[in-house]
Design goal:
By secondary structure, the chain is α+β, with helices and mostly antiparallel strands. It has 14 helices and 16 strands. It is 37% helix and 21% strand. The strands form three sheets. It has an eight-stranded mixed beta sheet with strand order 1-5-6-11-10-9-7-8, sandwiched between helices. Strands 13-12-14-15-16 form a five-stranded mixed beta sheet, with helices on both faces.
């Protein structure tokens, strides 16, 4: 066995207690905002059948071709650590018969995901996302609600310099006609494209808009735009989404070159960026995926949702200190007998709904009181053989009481604060 120091795998990281406190603010805000809008919490398994992502996300996407962690289990089944959240939730929607519930079914999640990609600030190979899905309605008001809830979440969390980019991909039929037009344009300029874009002309030509290659970017400046090819119904849907966002006073910019690296999107597409993050500015995004559940073997079912990166959100917010957890009662002891009694007092205090800690490090009484002060404990009980001294740390007042009276007294004094 190697004697070198073990470290977390490259592209992963440990969440330490002081960091966890900031992350909990994201979960609390999501629960309040999304739960308050009727979205119920859902969690799917960390790994799924590989076929789910090949069929749902798209075999030609970078996610499926390059970024998935796929393995064979003991039964010879191909499994994949989930790289995104929408396909698993669509699978759960079908598997559990949610189509029989009143539609749309509104769900939210906060989970970890896995992609093999170059690790950089705020982008890791194991990462966390908060997301929401509304499945079962094709109405543009659902698109607008999802976008506005995400905007509220980012604003509540204090994400700086946020911009919303908005586009529409039209229906699959509209996109199929446009795809042929774009493929013809790319082939006519093939000698100026990157090798990667050339290799994708047949499978995924829209991803050319995402290219960093200078020659490709020059070609794409003259490319035909899907937004200019929308049919009547597509255009009306997009216009209604924009009108609802206008009514809500949410600023946005139309970006006809906006694409996302997943094949299931149709019609509304959006992305929130933060200038505070520099070149890699994406914080959150999503869109409509009306064909996804049908691709997974279900009936035609519309859906729309978003995902926001927890690490990206925290990078784009102020590192405001999070208030330490409240300690209602710290239990210290003077003698071995007091230690056993104090241990029981702390346990009963927790059962009574108090936040309570008990001395665990065998410090001197002086050291115990210093620890209580570090924790900013509201009350301290010093327990002896037959008595306890209860001290109010704010007023400095202290009283000698029976050990059985400590908890009732603390509860009574807490009510008067």
């Amino acid at each position: 066995m190697s004697s070198s120091k073990l470290q977390a795998p490259r592209g992963t990281y440990d969440v330490l207690p002081d960091q966890a406190a900031r992350r909990e603010t994201v979960e609390d805000a999501a629960r309040r905002i999304l739960g308050g809008a009727g979205y119920g919490r859902i969690e799917t398994p960390a790994f799924e059948a590989t076929e789910l992502f090949a069929r749902g996300v798209g075999a030609s996407t970078d996610i499926v071709q390059k970024e998935m962690y796929t393995f064979e289990d003991g039964g010879g089944r191909s499994l994949t650590l989930r790289p995104e959240g929408t396909a698993p939730i669509a699978r759960a929607y079908l598997e559990h018969g949610m189509q029989r519930l009143p539609q749309p079914v509104r769900l939210w999640y906060l989970s970890s995901f896995f992609r093999y990609e170059r690790a950089q600030a705020g982008r890791y190979r194991q990462f966390w996302q908060v997301g929401a899905e509304a499945i079962g309605s094709a109405e543009p008001v659902v698109d607008a609600e999802v976008i506005l809830l995400l905007a509220d979440l980012l604003e509540t969390l204090g994400v700086h310099d946020v911009r919303l980019r908005l586009a529409s991909l039209g229906t699959p039929a509209t996109r199929a006609d446009y795809r042929e037009e774009l493929q013809a344009y790319l082939r006519a300029n093939e000698d100026r494209l990157s090798d990667e874009v050339r290799s994708r002309i047949h499978l995924n030509p829209l991803r050319a808009f995402d290219a960093d290659h200078a020659g490709t970017r020059e070609v794409m400046r003259g490319a035909p735009l899907l937004l200019d090819r929308l049919t009547g119904e597509d255009a009306e849907h997009f216009a209604e989404v924009r009108a609802l966002l206008d009514d809500a006073d949410l600023a946005y910019e139309i970006d006809p070159t906006l694409v996302r690296g997943i094949d299931y999107y149709a019609r509304t597409l959006f992305e929130f960026t933060s200038d505070a993050l520099g070149a890699q500015s994406g914080v959150a995004g999503g869109g409509r995926y009306d064909g996804l559940i049908e691709q997974l073997g279900g009936p035609p079912t519309p859906g729309v949702g978003f995902a926001a990166g927890i690490e990206r959100i925290l990078l784009a917010t102020d590192r405001r200190p999070v208030a330490p957890p409240v300690v209602d009662l710290f239990v210290a002891y003077e003698t071995p007998a007091g230690r056993r009694t104090g241990f029981g007092i702390a346990r009963e205090a927790r059962r009574a709904g108090l936040s309570a800690q008990v001395e665990l490090a065998d410090r001197s009484l002086k050291g115990q009181l210093k620890q209580a002060d570090r924790l900013r404990a509201r009350f301290v009980a010093v327990v002896g053989d037959e008595h306890a001294t209860l001290k109010d740390m704010e007023s400095g007042k202290q009283d000698e009481v029976e050990p059985t009276r400590v908890i009732p007294l603390v509860l009574r004094m807490e009510k008067t604060l």
